[in-house]
């Protein structure tokens, strides 16, 4: 199963719509619909099928986003709507150095998260493809960081680093690296959060890459061997191009995961020390629910939403294009 | 040396025949080296998870027990709210799974079989919705739900979970329905079956793997969620495991045995599902689940 669903899902995103069954992909002629029982009753049924989901989608997704847009131009709080203040909230937010720092860290966090987990996931997928005793077992065990709830693994990582007596600082001390306090030093905390994110995400990449590698025609490798290509050349000129589509899709998904990621950072560092590990999502949450500045908080969230809508529309088009080529 | 890619293309067309199925394998010589390598890597990767289990079995300070003990478990179930949190988590999660699958399945069918402007717009909206940050939706929903007494209420949280799983769940169901040939249904329509009839008797009946993957995805999202629960659930009696564990951890930083015991309780259901159903464990689904968080 694993990546099939997503590949198919992306497939349909590319096509734009459903294809009416894999048996007959895109040639779904209008005349076909006449074969369905009574054209009108069919449309009614389909509409009724979609109705519950449409209502919930509007109520729980579209309406809140619209409301957030309105609320970001008001000075209300969680209980009252407040008065219209125009772009005041946006101005406040954009003038804060903390906001730009959060934006920058979101970028770093995302880049490290995407490419770090991809590199490790790909390396492990390549390693597990070779003949190793019990490699099925390792494949399952290595997925655990992805399966275990983030609340649980964040607690475990906390135990690893939180105090000077925790295992990691003790080990560092043993090797003469002083006694680093990962949660108190801004730079160390940033590195820690990024490493933690890669730890959580690499199994996802490993699964994606394993399924991509499985579909590579093995004869090509034989051929390249005959032609005297080295391992690095084989990898760069054969393996990489052949898994490029899945790679691209997994980058897109992981980018969305990283930008929107809240618990990974919040549960490990809470955004601290001194806001050094705050991403935009964490900052929006903290601003609204801890500092009770609803207006500016919603403004941050809405800015992010706008950017993400633009990005996802572009990516949606891009995914469709990749397929056509 | 010639440029490898050109000669490769040539080879490809000729179609070199070979029986080797795992061509990158440099024979048995490196096998044990790689074996040891992967053991070391897996060992390092799993340290945090093993630590959780080991600490939950380690006697806490001031305890007379030596070696491994289950006294933390006895203590956790009598002295903490873990039983309440577990019940709440199970209730909310199962309700989310049922509602989301029931709503997403017919919607996924429309997405899979329909083909017009409306459907392609719907598909685009779903793609956008699943890439938006949950924080944006949570704030307005909190304000809205406060008016109806749905804050600090398990029912309210369930509704939010349904909303946040729905787009990916629909997408997953549609992707699965795509794999069921429409010819089966066409035959049934010829015999006078309605669309509803063909949907329930032909499509749904053959979609157990798809339904299971969707259900697993919804289960994990609701089970693991921290953000929504932390905003909506404040009283101890309605807390789910993630917020329960987090607040318990903040109050008992030093008592690692008890904290990790609660963590193990929380970790068991997803790991169990993974162990039993990993065939249906869809990357896309879980992927989508994190997309929102």
TrEMBL record, chain A:
Report the residue ranges that make up the ABC transmembrane type-1 domain in this protein: 103-315
Q: Does the keyword Cell membrane apply?
A: yes
The record ties this protein, via Gene3D superfamilies, to:
MetI-like
Provide the protein's localization.
Cell membrane
Pfam families in the cross-refs: BPD_transp_1
* Keywords attached to this entry: Cell membrane, Membrane, Transmembrane, Transmembrane helix, Transport
Recorded topology in the membrane:
Multi-pass membrane protein
Segments traversing the membrane: 45-63, 98-128, 140-160, 180-199, 248-268, 297-316
Highest rank taxon of the organism: Bacteria
State the residue spans of region: Disordered: 1-38
CDD domains of this UniProt entry? TM_PBP2
Q: Which family does it belong to?
A: Belongs to the binding-protein-dependent transport system permease family.
Q: What is this protein called?
A: Transporter
Q: Which organism is it from?
A: Pseudolysinimonas kribbensis
UniProtKB/TrEMBL annotation, chain B:
Q: Taxonomic lineage per UniProt?
A: Bacteria, Bacillati, Actinomycetota, Actinomycetes, Micrococcales
- What is the protein's species of origin? Pseudolysinimonas kribbensis
Q: Which domain of life is it from?
A: Bacteria
Report TM segments: 32-57, 90-112, 124-148, 154-177, 211-233, 253-277
Know the name of this protein?
A: ABC transporter permease
The primary location reported for this protein is membrane
Q: Which CDD domains match?
A: TM_PBP2 (cd06261)
- ABC transmembrane type-1 domain mapped to chain residues: 86-277
Q: PROSITE patterns per the record?
A: ABC_TM1
| Alphabetized PANTHER family for the sequence | INNER MEMBRANE ABC TRANSPORTER PERMEASE PROTEIN YCJP (PTHR32243:SF18), MALTOSE TRANSPORT SYSTEM PERMEASE-RELATED (PTHR32243)
Write out the entry's keywords from A to Z: Cell membrane, Membrane, Transmembrane, Transmembrane helix, Transport
What is this entry's stated membrane topology?
Multi-pass membrane protein
Family to which the UniProt record says this protein belongs:
Belongs to the binding-protein-dependent transport system permease family.
Entry's localization field: Cell membrane
């Amino acid at each position: 199963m694993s990546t099939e669903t997503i590949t198919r899902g992306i497939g349909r995103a590319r096509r734009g719509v459903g294809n009416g069954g894999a048996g007959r992909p895109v040639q779904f002629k209008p005349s076909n619909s006449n074969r369905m029982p009574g054209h009108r009753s069919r449309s009614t049924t389909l509409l009724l099928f979609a109705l519950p989901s449409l209502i919930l989608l509007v109520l729980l997704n579209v309406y809140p986003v619209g409301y957030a847009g309105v609320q970001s131009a008001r000075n209300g709080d969680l209980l009252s709507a407040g008065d219209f203040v125009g772009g005041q909230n946006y101005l406040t937010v954009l003038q804060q150095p903390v906001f730009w720092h959060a934006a920058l860290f979101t970028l770093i966090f995302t880049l490290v998260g995407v490419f770090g987990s991809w590199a490790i996931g790909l390396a492990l997928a390549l390693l597990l493809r070779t003949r190793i005793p019990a490699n099925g077992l390792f494949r399952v065990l290595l997925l655990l960081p992805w399966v275990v709830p983030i609340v649980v693994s964040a607690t475990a990582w906390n135990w690893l680093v939180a105090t000077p007596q925790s295992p990691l600082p003790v080990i560092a001390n043993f090797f003469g690296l002083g006694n680093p306090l990962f949660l108190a030093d801004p730079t160390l905390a940033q590195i820690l959060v990024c490493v933690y994110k890669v730890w959580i995400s690499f199994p996802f990449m490993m699964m994606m890459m394993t399924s991509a590698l499985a579909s590579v025609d093995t004869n090509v490798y034989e051929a390249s061997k005959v032609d005297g290509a080295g391992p690095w050349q084989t990898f760069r000129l054969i393996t990489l191009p052949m898994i490029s589509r899945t790679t691209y899709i997994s980058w897109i998904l992981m980018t969305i995961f990283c930008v929107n990621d809240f618990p990974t950072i919040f549960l490990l560092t809470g955004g601290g020390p001194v806001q050094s590990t705050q991403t935009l999502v964490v900052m929006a949450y903290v601003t609204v629910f801890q500092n009770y500045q609803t207006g500016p908080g919603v403004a941050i969230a809405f800015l992010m939403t706008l950017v993400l809508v633009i990005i996802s529309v572009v990516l949606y088009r891009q995914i469709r294009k990749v397929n056509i080529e | 040396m010639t440029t490898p890619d050109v000669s490769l293309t040539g080879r490809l067309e000729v179609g070199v025949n070979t029986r080797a199925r795992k061509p990158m394998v440099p024979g048995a010589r490196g096998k044990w080296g790689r074996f040891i390598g992967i053991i070391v890597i897996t060992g390092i990767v799993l340290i945090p998870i093993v630590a959780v289990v080991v600490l939950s079995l380690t006697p806490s300070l001031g305890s007379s027990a030596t070696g491994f003990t289950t006294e933390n478990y006895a203590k956790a179930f009598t002295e903490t709210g873990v039983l309440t949190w577990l019940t709440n988590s199970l209730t909310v999660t199962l309700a989310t799974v049922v509602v989301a699958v029931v709503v997403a399945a017919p919607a996924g069918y429309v997405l899979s079989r329909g083909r017009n402007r409306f459907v392609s717009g719907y598909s685009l909206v779903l793609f956008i919705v699943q890439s938006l940050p949950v924080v944006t939706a949570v704030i307005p929903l909190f304000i809205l739900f406060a008016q109806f007494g749905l804050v600090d209420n398990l029912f309210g949280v369930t509704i939010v979970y349904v909303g946040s799983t729905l787009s990916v769940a629909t997408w997953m169901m549609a992707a699965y329905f795509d794999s069921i040939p429409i010819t089966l249904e066409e035959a049934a329509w010829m015999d006078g079956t309605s669309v509803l009839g063909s949907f329930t008797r032909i499509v749904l009946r053959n979609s157990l793997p798809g339904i299971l993957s969707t259900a697993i995805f919804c289960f994990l999202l609701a089970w693991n969620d921290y953000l929504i629960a932390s905003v909506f659930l404040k009283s101890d009696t309605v807390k789910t495991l993630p917020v329960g564990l987090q607040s318990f951890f903040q109050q008992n930083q030093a008592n690692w045995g008890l904290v990790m015991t609660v963590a193990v309780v929380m970790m068991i259901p997803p790991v169990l599902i993974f162990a039993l159903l990993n065939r249906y464990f869809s990357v896309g689904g879980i992927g989508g689940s994190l997309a929102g968080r």
